[in-house]
From TrEMBL:
One of its GO terms (molecular function) is acetyl-CoA C-acyltransferase activity. It comes from the Bacteria. This is Thiolase. NCBIfam families: PRK06158.1. SUPFAM superfamilies: Thiolase-like. It comes from Oceanibaculum indicum P24. Residues 237-379 form the Thiolase C-terminal domain. InterPro entries: Thiolase (IPR002155), Thiolase-like (IPR016039), Thiolase_C_2 (IPR055140). Coiled coil: none annotated. Transmembrane segments: none annotated.
Length: 384
């Protein structure tokens, strides 16, 4: 992928997010549709202008067929790649390639879920893994708890360090009016919360919410003439390593260590160039692992890196400024919301949580049980 001329050739020009948290009475496809229409309007386009479609959901066997029919569009390019929560970062690459090849002119990427108000629990199409099922793991938290325990064993990471990640996310969420979970949260609150799968308590786990999200991409030459400041796609890299957690070669090392360098090479950037770091925080341990595997701190140092507010407002590295999956929103497959926050920050529209400078943002998606990793780098015109 690194040899393809993708850098800066396409841009995100429209974003839409709806149903942040609870959206009673609305189905998953309705939330997706509302977000899609909002994104198209935000781009200054109409649905009839959309001729490319990428979608992945937890409720549709053939998502692009269902979404296209619901929206009344007939795309010339479509991609329903589903690798869990990182699907949407991979869709950025598929869309960029399709646009650059001239297969289509405007691609809609979209998602929706009503898992909170419909069932009050995680909605997943994930099938039980036959060699794990006899041990009755709780999907997916048991897998992430294994990774957390192994990291604690090998590197001296503590529950307090993991708790600091949740506290930092809440501090960012308190600056975001769209965040579902707001209010005070202390390290002690996290440690004393109900244990779900040792060492992860409810506060170490992401929210279970409703939500719909969408974005629109076009070629860069067209992006300059549309309503908002474009967020250019600078580089995307992907990797996946296993399906079941028992097949993960090393519980403390994800293949973000492969997807990240691919994305950085394509973009011609390095971690220190990033003004904003958006990481898929399904659990506190994922933030820690991805900070290490993407090169923001050495392996084994993630716990010490996140202490004392280092990734909170006012810290040295801005991580998950929306409040993330831990405190903002997590409707099952969260990856598209990472992109929405990055675009909002690059545009300078993030309100109280707006960074002083945001020309380069990294969005890192995770799917399965630390299985699929996709890293995308977005940037302003200044980053080209």
């Amino acid at each position: 992928m690194s040899n393809m001329n993708v850098r800066g050739r396409t841009a995100i020009v429209g974003v839409g997010g709806v149903g942040w948290g609870e959206a009673p009475g609305r189905s998953a496809i309705e939330l997706l549709g509302e977000a899609a229409i909002a994104a198209v309007k935000d781009a200054g386009l109409e649905l009839k202008d959309i001729d490319g479609l990428c979608a992945a959901t937890s409720t549709h066997a053939f998502p692009t067929l269902s979404v296209a029919e619901y929206l009344g569009i007939r795309p010339a390019f479509f991609d329903g790649t589903n690798i869990g929560g990182s699907s949407f970062e991979m869709h950025l690459l598929q869309a960029a390639l399709a646009l650059e090849a001239g297969i289509c002119n405007a691609v809609l990427i979209c998602y929706g879920s009503n898992q909170r108000t419909a069932g009050g629990r995680l909605v997943s199409m994930s099938e039980p893994q036959w060699h794990e099922a006899p041990f009755k793991p709780r999907h997916p938290v048991t897998a992430y708890a294994l990774a957390a325990h192994r990291h604690m064993h090998e590197y001296g990471t503590t529950r307090e360090m993991l708790a600091d990640i949740a506290v930092s996310a809440r501090q960012w969420a308190n600056k975001n009016p769209n965040a579902f979970a707001r209010g005070p949260l202390t390290r002690e609150d996290v440690l004393n919360a109900r244990m779900i799968s040792d060492p992860l308590t409810t506060r170490d786990c992401c929210l279970v919410t409703d939500g719909g999200a969408a974005c629109v991409m076009v070629r860069a030459d067209r992006a300059k003439d549309l309503k908002h400041k474009p967020a250019y796609v600078l580089g995307v890299g992907g990797a996946h390593s296993h399906r079941s957690i028992t097949q993960m070669a090393d519980l403390t090392r994800t293949v973000a260590a492969e997807s990240g360098p691919r994305a950085f090479e394509m973009a011609g950037l390095k971690p220190s160039d990033c003004d904003l770091v958006m990481l898929y925080d399904a659990f506190t341990i994922t933030t820690l692992l991805f900070l290490e595997d993407l090169g923001f701190c050495p392996k084994g140092e993630g716990g010490r890196f996140v202490q004392d507010g280092n990734i909170a407002p006012g810290g040295s590295l801005a991580v998950n400024t929306s409040g993330g999956g831990l405190s903002c929103v997590h409707p099952g497959m969260y990856g598209l919301f990472l992109i929405l926050e990055a675009v909002t920050q690059i545009r300078g529209q993030a309100g109280e949580r707006q960074l002083d400078k945001c020309d380069v943002a990294i969005c890192h998606g995770n799917g399965g049980v630390l299985s699929s990793q996709v890293t995308a780098l977005l940037g302003s015109e200044a980053a080209l």
